[in-house]
Amino acid sequence: MYNSGTGLHVLTEMLKYVSPTHVIRVSTTVEHKNLPCGTFWMNKFDESPPVNLFKIRAAHNSPRR
Hints:
This protein is of the alpha+beta class.
């Protein structure tokens, strides 16, 4: 289940508008706080240029504050 708040909607629309070639996805250890995987902002029928996706996962042993 993904957060479907205003921020996700704004991000999705912004990514559709700017058509990035590189996207970095930084994730947390709390899965429901992460964005959906892949190119979630693109329609599957879009003929957009390929997007390079980079994933950075959170360290599991990082200190909590």
